[in-house]
Amino acid sequence: MLSVTAVTRTQGFLNEIEIIPLPAQGAVLIEARFDPLRADPRLFEVFGMSIPQALDRMADKRAAEFLAGRLVAALGAEALGVAPQEIVIGPGRAPLWPAGLAGSITHSGQRCACLVTRRADLICGIDLEHIAQGAALRAIMDRCLSGPERMLAQQGLGLPADQAATLMFSAKETIFKALYPTVGRIFGFDAAEVARDLEGRALLLHLTDALHPTLPAGLALAPRYILRADHLLTLIIAPRPAFSAGDSTDGSGAGRDIAR
Question: What is the CATH number of the domain that holds 72?
Answer without folding.
Answer: 3.90.470.20
